[in-house]
Specification:
- The chain is mostly helical and 82 residues long.
- It has helices at 2-33, 41-50, 53-57, 59-66, 68-80.
- α1 (2-33) packs parallel to α5 (68-80) and α4 crosses α5.
- The longest helix is centred in the first third of the chain and has 32 residues, at 2-33.
- It is elongated.
């Protein structure tokens, strides 16, 4: 079971890094397509960097309530749908 949990954590970390790197690649064409100035990227960057703070601040309560294994599986499955 611990090996499976480590594999799931590794997959979750990869899933966390992919959306951020994709945003850097597509942001110029995305703003040209929607006729937006590049300054609006600041709002998206702020939201993507501060948005994950809420679960991080509540992580101790979530781990106590659901356990590490269930939270890791849920977060891995969540990122799979994006």
């Amino acid at each position: 079971m611990p090996i499976l949990l480590l594999i799931l954590i590794y997959i979750a970390l990869i899933g966390l890094g992919i959306p951020e790197s994709l945003f850097v690649v597509v942001r110029h064409s995305m703003y040209q397509q929607f006729s937006l100035p590049l300054s609006t990227a600041n709002h998206i960057i702020i939201l993507t960097s501060t948005g994950p703070m809420v679960p991080r601040l509540n992580s101790s309560r979530l781990i106590y309530r659901y356990g590490t294994d269930k939270l890791t599986i849920a977060s891995t499955l969540q990122f799979k749908h994006f």
